[in-house]
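dumping the sequnces here before i forget
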Amino acid sequence: MSLEFPAPSASKADLEEGAVFSPKFDDNGLITAIVTDADDHALLMVAHMNREALSLTIETGIAHYYSRSRRQIWKKGETSGNLQTVIELLTDCDQDALLVRVKVAGHQATCHTGRRSCFYRAVELQDGRAMLREVDSHRHFDPDHIYKS
Amino acid sequence: MSLEFPAPSASKADLEEGAVFSPKFDDNGLITAIVTDADDHALLMVAHMNREALSLTIETGIAHYYSRSRRQIWKKGETSGNLQTVIELLTDCDQDALLVRVKVAGHQATCHTGRRSCFYRAVELQDGRAMLREVDSHRHFDPDHIYKS
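..and the predicted 3d for all of it:
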């Protein structure tokens, strides 16, 4: 049985201060999910949920997303073993984004490149151009090994 | 003079491991920006940038966003005084999201409701329904006072 989510209230006060959870899905039926490590608040990844993924996440306590590339429900970590147990789920003032505070199993890595976080490069100005500099090169697993087969 | 951002590379290796910053803007010309406190990593807000806002942010070191409701560049904190100085700007593996690590001036509050973070309510199951529970009620400023006039 999946959860029903009511349409967003037209009342700003209800949306911002009410107890009714009425997530605002975009035109593609998705809502942005910000995923952080519940222990130290590190930002691990940004993903998206549709209604089904959100319902599964709330009901099972394991983070589920919607893969826009594969166009299907994505139980994060099903292949790599890095399942995410949800410690706390929050929404923001206008209820169009979610914060998923998780505990990561397995390799303690979230990015498919093997790094802990998907945010491993800083944007910096170099000679008037915005360039990238790697700030985390540590791979917790070998992606070629994990995702092969 | 604003920065030019090249179109995303078709090469996954270049996108994920290269030094060229080629942010992927969506169909509306926007990219998601996750804003955290540079000191303790707390998630403060989620916003969006267009090319101009991103360029201004990189060039000035002060966070600029694009307001989807007002359809204009939004220098966060211009009204409330809570300007955001960018300590570090990062992008993720596929370069379709940004992490903006900031130091907040003024009231140390980011949410327009006066709270430190926009994520002040937790989603919890109550009698089979997903409901919201306030986890932060502290207002650092009175929004009616700050945004009046």
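Strands of chain A lie at 31-37, 43-49, 64-67, 72-75, 84-91, 97-104, 121-126, 129-134.
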